[in-house]
Amino acid sequence: MALCDPIELYRELRMAEKNDQMRRSDWETIQDVFSYFANSGWAANQALAFYIGMSFFPTAVQKFRKFVLDKCSADLGLYLVSLGPCDDAVRFLFPIFAEYCLEEFTDEMKSFEAMISKADLTKPHTWFPFARAMKRRIVYHCGPTNSGKTYEALQRFKEAKKGIYCGPLRLLAMEVFDKMNSHGVYCSLLTGQEKKRVPFANHVACTIEMVSVDEMYDVAVIDEIQMMADATRGFAWTRALLGVKADEIHLCGDPSVLDIVRKICAETGDELEVHHCERFKKLEVEAKTLLGDLKNVKSGDCVVAFSRREIFEVKLAIEKNTNHRCCVIYGALPPETRRQQANLFNDQDNEFDVLVASDAVGMGLNLNIRRVVFYNLSKYNGDKVVPVPATQVKQIAGRAGRRGSRFPVGLTTTLQLDDLAYLIECLKQPFDEVKKVGLFPFFEQVESFAAQLPDLNFPKILAKFAESCRLDGMYFFCKHDHIKKVANMLEKVKGLSLQDRFNFCFAPTNIRDPKSMYHLLRFASDYGQKVPASIAMGMPKGSARNDTELLDLETKHQVLSMYLWLSHQFDYESFPHGKKAEAMATDIADLLGQSLTKANWKPETRQSAGKPKPRKNEDGYDRPKSLITSYKEEKAGEKQGAGN
Ligand SMILES: Nc1ncnc2c1ncn2[C@@H]1O[C@H](COP(=O)(O)OP(=O)(O)OP(=O)(O)O)[C@@H](O)[C@H]1O
Ligand SMILES: [Mg+2]
To answer: Top enzyme class of this protein (predicted)?
Structure first.
C-alpha cells in the first residue's frame, strides 16, 4: 500500500461507492490517525504551498476524513490501522489529501492565493525603486556605547550641503537640532509632536518614524541602527535603511546588526564601509561595590533602578541618609524634563550631584557620569522578575565616563556584592548577532489586502495580515500589541476610514493608562463625528505635592503630546488647538521638573496589582535583594514545590 501511487489511490477512492465493513476498534484507530493528521504542523505548513491557509486547514482535513471514511476499502483501512496515528501515516495520507484539495477547494484556494499575494512582504528592498536606482555609500560606525559613533557621523552631517539625522527618541533629535544650530549649521526639527522649520535650513533632525523616503539628501545619519531588531519599532529602522535617498548614509550602532546590514547591502547593491570605534577610555569595574548601603554613594554617581517606584525610593533614601541631592530620569518623563534633570546633574554649581535613573538613561542624553551603580540587576517584565539582559546592562554601564568631561574614565559597580559577578559577566559578553530585523506593512499594503476581505473590521484585517503574510528569512513581522489594542478600542467609533484607523493606531498613547486611552478614544470619536477635538483638561496650579499629583502631571503631558501628534497627522480643523497644547505641554514639563527637584515622598504605582511587594527594612528604604539571592530562593522554592 505504501508504494501505491497516491493519484491512483485517490482515483480509487473517488470511484468507490461506499466503504467496506471494518471492526469498531479499527474505525477508532483510523479516526485517531485523522486527528493526528489535523494536528500535524508539518501537514498544515505543506498545505500552504497549494494555498490551503492555516485557518482553513482543519476544515479541509475534516472534509477529507469524511471523504476517506465514506469510501475506505478494507485494504486501505487495515494499512492505516497498521500505521496508527504517527508521522508516517501523515506522510502517507498527505499526497492523497493534496489531490482531494485540488479538486474540492478550488475557490478557497484561489481566494487564499489572492490574499497571500496582497500580504507579500518578501523582497522589501524592491519597495523603494528610487533608492535602488541610486548607488549609495553606507558607512557603519560600529562600536560600544560612548565610543564616538554619533560624533563621527555628525561631523559628516555638518559638512553636507543637505543632511538628515534620524534618531530613536525626540530627545536625540532635539539634541542634534540644538547642537547644529549652536554650531551655525541651520537645522530644522521634525518629530511626531513638533515641526520647527528654521529659515534657510538644509538640515533636519528627526525621529526615525518621520524620515522622508521621497526627499534627496547628500548625507543621512541613522542612529542606533541595532534597533532594526527591536521587536516593536524595528520596522522604522529597516524602512530608513532600505528607503532613504542619500548619497552617503552613516549608520551608528553596536556590532549586533553588522552582519545583517552586510547582507541587506548585498541585496540593495549599496557599497558598505565599516568604521570600528572604541571607547576613548576603558570602562572599569569597581570590585568593592556599595556594600549594600546607599550611604556609600558619591558625587557623580548614577544609581540605576528598573522601576519608577524604586527610583523614588532610592532618591528618598539617599537624600535622607546623605548630604547628596538627586536628579531623576525615567521613561515616562517628557524629553524636556529629562534634559532639564540632566542639565541640573551636569551643572557643577548646585547640590544635585547624584542621578537616579531607569534604563531610559541608556540612550540619548549627554551626561557627566563618573560611576554607574546598579541598584539591582533584575526587573519586572510584566509577568515576572527576570535578570536584565546583558546588552542592556552593557549599554547602561557604558554611560559612565565621557570624553572631554570631568570624568573621562568611566566606572561601574553594583549596590550588592552578590550582584557583581553578574555585572562582570554581562560586560564580558560579546554582542549577540542579530538574525532578523523588523518589518511592518505600509498603509497601502494593508489597504490592498483589506480589499480581499470586505466583511472584516480593521482589527481582524490586521490579524489576518499578520497570520498570512510571507516574509524572507532575514525579516520578522513586528509585534503590534499596542496597535491591536487601539484598533480594538476604536472598532465601534463611527465615521473613520481605514486610513484614519491605521493612523490613530500609531498615536503615542500609554495603553496601560486608562486615562490616556480614554482621551485617545475621545479624540477619535470627535474626529469621526467631524467635531473639532478639544483638549478638555485643566492646567494644574503648581508643582506636585505628592506622588498622585506627579503621576497626574505625567499623564497630562502624555495626553497633550498625543494631541500635538494628532494635530500634525490630521487636518487643522479637526485638531485646532495645537498651539495651546504645545504651550500647556511646555508648562507641564516645567512643573514636572520643579516637582522632581522637590520630590521627597513615597512613590505610588499606576497599577500595582500583581507586582512583587517590596520588602521593608529598618533604614526606611526597601533594599533590593541581590539577583543571586532571588535566584537561590526561587530554586529552593522550585525544589520544595517538586517535593509536594
Ligand atoms: N573625537 C571626539 N572629540 C571630542 N569629543 C568627542 C569625540 N568623540 C566623541 N566625543 C564625545 O564623547 C561623547 C560620546 O560620544 P558619542 O555620543 O558620539 O558616542 P556613541 O558611541 O554614539 O555613544 P552611544 O552608544 O551612547 O550613542 C559625546 O559627548 C561626544 O561629544
Ligand atoms: Mg550615539
So the answer is: hydrolase
Banded model confidence at residue 603, pLDDT cuts 50, 70, 90: confident
Ligand having the closest approach to the CA of 154 = 1
Length of the chain: 644
Three cell numbers written together for 147: 565610543
Q: What is the pLDDT of residues 253-310, one digit of tens each?
A: 999 999 999 999 999 999 999 999 999 888 999 999 999 999 999 999 999 999 999 9
Contact predicate 361/400, CB 8 Å: no
Q: Report CA torsion sign: 198, 201, 205, 207.
A: positive
Taking the CB of residue 247, how many other CB atoms lie within 10 A of it? 15
**pLDDT tens column, 45-93:** 899 888 898 878 999 999 999 999 999 998 999 999 999 999 999 999 9
Mutate to test the pocket of ligand 1, among 145, 146, 393 (most ligand atoms within 8 A of CB): 146
Let me know: does 137 contact 249? Beta carbons within 8 Å: yes
Per-residue pLDDT of 330-360, as tens digits, reads 989 999 999 999 999 999 989 999 999 999 8
Q: What is the atom index within ligand 1 of the atom nearest the CA of 398?
A: 26
Q: How far is the CA of 370 from the centre of ligand 1 (A)?
A: 15
Position 615 pLDDT exceeds 60: no
DSSP-derived pairing of the beta strands 475-477 and 437-439: parallel
Q: Could you identify the atom of ligand 1 that is nearest to the CA of residue 223?
A: 27
The residue whose CA is least distant from atom 11 of ligand 1 is 403
Neighbours of 149 (CB within 10 A): 26
Q: Note whether 167 and 176 are within 8 A (CB).
A: yes
Q: Which residues have CB under 8 Å from 609's CB, separation 6+? A: none
Ligand minimally distant from the alpha carbon of residue 365: 1
Q: Which three cell numbers stand for residue 537?
A: 483638561
Task: State yes or no: ipTM above 0.95.
Answer: yes
Instruction: Please tell me the distance from the alpha carbon of residue 393 to that of residue 376, in angstroms, as a whole number.
Output: 11
User: What values do phi and psi take at 235, rounded to 5?
Assistant: -60, -30
Atom 9 of ligand 1, residue of closest alpha carbon? 148
Give phi and psi for 371, each to the nearest 5.
-145, 135
What is the rounded average pLDDT of the residues 377-388? 86
Which residues does ligand 1 sit against, CB inside 6 Å? 143, 145-151, 252, 366, 402-404
Q: How far apart are CA 397 and CA 359, in angstroms?
A: 10
Range of lowest pLDDT (322-336, 412-426, 445-459, 526-540): 445-459
Atom of ligand 1 nearest to the CA of 403: 12
Cell of 132: 535602488
- Tens digits of per-residue pLDDT, 147-157? 999 999 999 99
Q: Which three cell numbers stand for residue 25?
A: 476498534
CA pair distance 111, 464, nearest whole angstrom: 13
Amino acid at site 114: A
What is the three-class DSSP state of 326? strand
Q: pTM to 2 decimals?
A: 0.82
